[in-house]
Amino acid sequence: MGSAPSTPRRGEAFSPETAEYLIGTFIGDKSFPLSSEFWQKLLELPIHVQWPSDRVQEACELLAKNNGQTRHLAKILFHMACCLQESMSISGVPPFVYEKAVNAAYISSVFLKHLIESFRGEYVELHLSLDDNETIPMDVLGDQTIENFVMRNVLNFIASVDVSANTYVLHLELLNFMIIAMSTQLLCGPSPGPHDVNPFLDAAMAQDSSLVCSVVRRLLLNFITRSGAPFNRASYSVFYEGSQSSVLQRVGSAAANIVLLPFSYLVSSRGDGSRNPLADSSLHVLLVLIHHHKCVVSEDYSATENNKENQYFSDNPYCKALEHAVDCELDRVDVEGNAHSGQLVKLPFASLFDTLGICLADEAAVLLLYSLLQGNSAFLEYVLVRTDMDTLLMPILEALYNAPRRTANQIYMLLIILLILSQDSSFNASIHKLILTGVPWYKERLLHQTSLGSLLVIILIRTVQYNLSKLRDVYLHTTCLATLANMAPHVHRLSAYASQRLVSLFDMLSRKYNKLADRRDNKLHNEKGNLIEGNSLIEDMSTELHIYTDFLRLVLEIINAILTYALPRNPEVVYAIMHRQEVFQPFKNHPRFSELLENIYTSANSVVSSVRFVKYCLCDASSHESLVLDFFNSRMDAQRVSGDWSVKEVLQVIIVNCRSWRGDGMKMFTQLRFTYEQESHPEEFFIPYVWQLVLSRWGLTFNPAAINLFPIDLPTDCVENGVVGSTLRNGDFDKPEYQLDP
User: Fold this and answer.
1) What's the pLDDT tens digit per position in 709-741?
2) pLDDT given for residue 612 in this prediction
3) CA dist 689 → 364, 692, 693 (Å)
4) What highest taxon heads this organism's lineage (predicted)?
5) What pTM does this model have?
6) How far separated are the first and last CA of the chain, in Å rounded?
7) How far apart are CA 622 and CA 620, in angstroms?
8) DSSP 230-292
9) Residue 632 in contact with residue 601, Cβ under 8 Å?
10) What is the pLDDT of residue 636?
């Protein structure tokens, strides 16, 4: 079966010659059968034996050259699965069984990753099948493919074996292996197609529902419990003996570009309390699994036809398992009368809620929260009944406050989360009852004893302002304003600062509107001679002007909803409107705004005609402006005294008279209610987004030249040993110095 130096007994040292021979044999052109003793010798090879990076690169290239003939990658994967089976089939597993499985997973990951990212051609060919004449142990493989056999055992181990001091590193390496095995998705185009080749992902999707549910539960429990790395040298001598890097450890700077290896994981996590390798890797694996969509061609058509009408996406069992997860605490109470049909993922929602609140600075945790709120109605209901909503909202609002340091996708996810929550009226009411003693990260102004609802209004308006000056994204504007519109009828005692910002929002958008209108009118005047180019530019400007007309109307509807449904509870809003009524004046006769402005002027103008502010000169009310302002104006006239009115005196009159406001004569408009719905093909956004997160947050580097899933800039100054290495970042904004108007 091929000669090899005898394997030292456990505890004895491996010679460099033995290690050199075993790795050299694995990558060589001679095929060793599954039953050869060579495989056991290879898997007992200590990882701490050193190989230089150029040799690792050479080893990867040699395996890529010979693997089609030897099928050694498939064989080591087979033995990895067998090691996992052995570790799950007996009680009191000796440590060396886990160590063999770690070695198999580790070596497989190094060479598998090189094969994937070095792929050139139309199809990924990993040569995962065994030769027909290969003798396979009876009843081990059956009719399964290698990839299915491997994924079934990897997932089984992750789901069924608890994380402990003895199994921690193996759990970590298996999660690393899964990310690498599923990275074939990076070679596919941004829109899933029927010709995409993802053997390990497809194998994961083919597992039975009970295993799928167990895997989803375990990955989420890993994220929740955040088990620390063990530092028991006696238990992990294989990872700590000697001061040199391991045989394949330096591959991080060369061929395989693996940087999160067992040793480096244990060492780096010691100095970084915020990082939890097992929790992070579990979350990344879960996100890849739940957002995968396999494109299938209808049986009535051939795969060569490119008509998308003949294609559909198969169900994702991991996504369904997450969507139907239930609270294990409530489920116990529900057992007697309302037993659930089928297998369900049972999770401690309280712990999941608290962990998400702690981890929302991580973009991957934000995506998990979005996935839960959007897909799992039980978790959404749980979140909405929590009385400590600040646990989730404060990190979300802080992230939006620091928008220049966030990616565009993260801002979108955060805003969509807020929009989903604002669809519930109880949420909109409860956030105004929760009073914050302070907001230390808000630097422009001291926010003392401010309600969570007021802070949410302030941050949403600030995000609109940032978008207007930096991103100029219509979808972001719409999402912010839709959330404010959902909140408006339920606003309660909005703070003075939030009320001022709301009126300033209209002023800010109106100035943008006026600039666009002036530019369009100037183009109309100047481009009369160039009809083709002029008409195209004018049409674009007219479209943008129409968009801002909609934005202005929406802000007016937000203000109108507060006055219509919540005026007695919001004297500061009335005061802010009176104080800045001049910003509304130019739009009184606009056909899209006139009806809404009638209600607003009704509430504010009467006071203005009677009261002179100390520092500001406000416009007089027109004769036809009546209701709300007329009401307060008459009250002010009744209490009028000689001399100027102070701000405090005006506000006190408004507060007193808010109690007697009935809204007679107010024109009622349909109450706005915005809901969030995913687009028809969300996979075109989420699959690339998930992998961008994995590559940037997980620390794994991947050859940029091999990536087709999303566009990236190929670096020209980061090439080592012929392999391009790059840690990808997810579209970070430029960060110029600028000031937001507080």
Assistant:
1) 998 876 544 433 333 333 333 333 232 232 333
2) 37
3) 10, 5, 6
4) Eukaryota
5) 0.85
6) 77
7) 7
8) P--TTTTHHHHSSSS--TTGGGGGSSS-----HHHHHHHHHH-TT--HHHHHHHHHHHHHHT-
9) no
10) 57
